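call fold target=Bifunctional protein FolD
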Amino acid sequence: MTKLIDGKQVAENLKVQIASSVKKLIALGITPGIAVILVGDDPASQIYVRNKQRAAEKLGIDSEVITFPATVSEEKILAKINGLNANPAIDAILVQSPLPDHIDEHHIQSAIAPEKDVDGFHAHNVGALFANSEGYYPMANTPRGIMTLLKEYVPDLTGKNALVIGRSILVGRPMMAMLNNANATVTLAHRHTKNLAQLVATADVIIVAVGKPHFLKMSAAKADAVVIDVGINRLEDGQLVGDVLDDMPDSEQLLTPVPGGVGPMTIATLMQTTIELAQQHSIFE
Ligand code: NAD
């Protein structure tokens, strides 16, 4: 069995630190607050939002979920975001994706004040990440959580060959920037990449965010590769699997399990970003 990276444990450790930061903020009279906007009745989105709300409550972070029917107008959502931008009790604003087709996701993300943009999707924050700017700015939580996880297992990424498969704005692109900022040599592969097998065979660290069950076999990777499986795929029989197939008994490779790898890190990192935004707001109040 390939050695497993314990995302659950690293996420629990992170939550202990977050809980202590929340206590300190509350002692100063500041309760961190996150608002989550959920549009429509997609069951997976409902579960994600519930999990985020539960995590916030457990840590003493105020959470507000605002739901809209799938038929809601863009204007209505924008008006709500404007209200949340102006509300001092709210430090973090998140719009759960996907949004219905008639809503322009870019308009919505751009309307969130950059200093409350907990997902790090606003162009201002994306730009800061890609420029490797000094100072604090929120970053996309899934890749940031992966960086925290990697730190435990590959403390120094300098000069490592890192391969990111999938180039979404949610995972692949910010992942590329974060690995680059950590001085790895990064390759970003996508559906038009021609020599993927060759790239896989030479990578020290591989991040797979494609959304296809068993897309990558561990046997295709180096004997000491570290593989992060971001994929969450539901098979017809109801089983939850990632993008990676572990076909390497007794290997020295490292792999994140699904579930129990990247997922718990994403939620814990979202909470981490929320309290960091609250800390920033308390400094500038
Ligand atoms: P997406 O569909 O937006 O992007 C998928 C990417 O994969 C695209 O850039 C595409 O070019 C690439 N791709 C598709 N086929 C390919 C191929 N044959 N070769 C190389 N690249 C190919 O997906 P996403 O939002 O980035 O999510 C990816 C997966 O990660 C999904 O399963 C999603 O559910 C999961 N996810 C998990 C978490 C978590 O917290 N665990 C967070 C976000 C996304």
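return ok
The two ends are 52 Å apart (CA to CA). Residues 29-116 form a domain with the Rossmann fold fold (CATH 3.40.50.10860).
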